[in-house]
Specification:
CATH class of the largest domain: Mainly Alpha
CATH topology of the largest domain: Substrate Binding Domain Of Dnak, Chain:A, Domain 2
Radius of gyration: 29 Å
Distance between the termini: 32 Å
Helix content: 40-55%
Number of domains: 2
Strand order of the largest sheet: 5-10-6-7-8-9
Structural class: alpha+beta
Shape: elongated
Length: 368
């Protein structure tokens, strides 16, 4: 079992929490601008209505004039309430974003501290095992499991605190808006979905600690992105790559071929948690990101973000350079029923869809 397989389930709850705390800064700025525009438009409209009403009153008197004045006053009051409510919404969104940012930072620190301490415990366990002290090594692994439980509990408490604060923000907005405001029809005491939903695609502003393929972004059954189906290349248009053992396989294009060659060039390199240093140490997604970078294609850092490009419907349609993705691991298909992956060390093995109980996501062709 690799280091990645040991640590993934331990840090998974904190990684899930980090996903829930992610924010879309662009959308938040957009809401602020939109409500600023609403307030400005309402203010201008209210001022124009007041001027027109004053001009009309100067030459009009009697009961009809009085009713017109009363109606104008009601419209002006409603406009001012809407301006106030729009300003309250703008402040609430800003406050919610600040709460989420603090929650992200707190949770990220928990993850980083866990990874640092876990690395030390694993090194100690390996040294004890090498010295023949099996009991001592097992004790270190027991301490690691306890550490994982602690970080999960602390992350859960942090998440609960953030959700409680968001509920308070929405509650305050509902309480200040009044019976005639838009909030009376749509807001409740629970945080709206936009405050705590997972981002779609790659919009997340914060990942799970920047630790490569070690952390998945979901629990339970994996959810797939809606991607186009990979189109097989025309015969004779591919690029040949040499495989270990003397065989050859045809990659769909030069980018994929270069990626395969680069990945195979790292055979024997040690597995390093969060590693992105070719020749020195790589983790699973560090290997694939490096390989495609050598091919001229920049792909995301983590394994759970590398299901990109186009989806390959079945194993018999795989071509060299295609990625085999789980929710906490990634490998590269090289042809002839084989994959290259950052095990310990980087190695070639037979194609598979099972990996230490992880959810299998699918096959993907980054080049489309």
């Amino acid at each position: 079992m690799t280091v990645e397989q040991v640590l993934t389930p331990l840090v998974q709850p904190a990684a899930d929490a980090q996903r829930q705390l992610a924010t879309d800064d662009g959308a938040i700025d957009g809401v602020g601008r939109a409500h600023g525009g609403v307030q400005s438009a309402l203010h201008s409209s209210d001022a124009d209505t007041g001027r027109r009403n004053a001009n009309l009153s100067a030459g009009w008197s009697g009961a009809s004039s009085d009713r017109r004045q009363e109606e104008a006053a009601r419209i002006s009051a409603a406009s001012q309430r809407l301006q106030q409510y729009s300003g309250d919404v703008r402040k609430a969104v800003t406050r919610a974003a600040e709460i989420l940012k603090v929650g992200q930072q707190t949770n990220q620190k928990l993850i980083d501290d866990f990874m640092r301490k876990a690395a030390g415990l694993l090194r100690a366990a390996a040294a004890l095992r090498a010295a023949g002290d099996t009991a001592g090594a097992q004790q270190k692994l027991t301490e690691l499991a306890k550490l994982g439980a602690e970080v999960s509990g602390q992350s859960g408490m942090n998440l609960d605190s953030v959700m409680g604060q968001l509920t308070g923000v929405v509650g305050e907005l509902s309480g200040t808006s009044g019976a005639t405001s838009p909030s009376s029809a749509g807001l409740s005491g629970a945080p709206p979905q936009s405050f705590n939903a997972a981002p779609s695609g790659g919009s997340s502003s914060t990942g799970a600690g920047g630790v490569g393929g070690a952390v998945s972004s979901g629990a339970g059954a994996s959810t797939k992105k809606r991607l186009p189906v990979a189109i097989p290349p025309q015969p004779g248009t591919g690029v040949m790559v040499n495989l270990p053992g003397g065989g050859q396989a045809e990659a769909p294009n030069e980018t994929a071929a270069k990626a395969v060659r680069a990945a195979l060039g790292q055979l024997g390199v040690p597995y390093v948690w969060g590693g992105t240093s070719p020749g020195d140490g790589l983790d699973c997604s560090g290997l694939t990101q490096y390989a495609y970078g050598e091919g001229g294609l920049d792909i995301p850092r983590t394994s759970r973000e590398q299901d990109i490009g186009a989806e390959v419907p079945s194993a018999d349609q795989l071509l060299p350079g295609d990625l085999v993705c789980w929710d906490g691991h990634v490998a590269m298909y090289i042809g002839d029923g084989q994959i290259v992956e950052a095990g310990d060390p980087v190695q070639v093995g037979p194609l598979r869809t099972e990996n230490a109980g992880m959810n299998f996501v699918g096959f993907y062709r980054p080049t489309g």
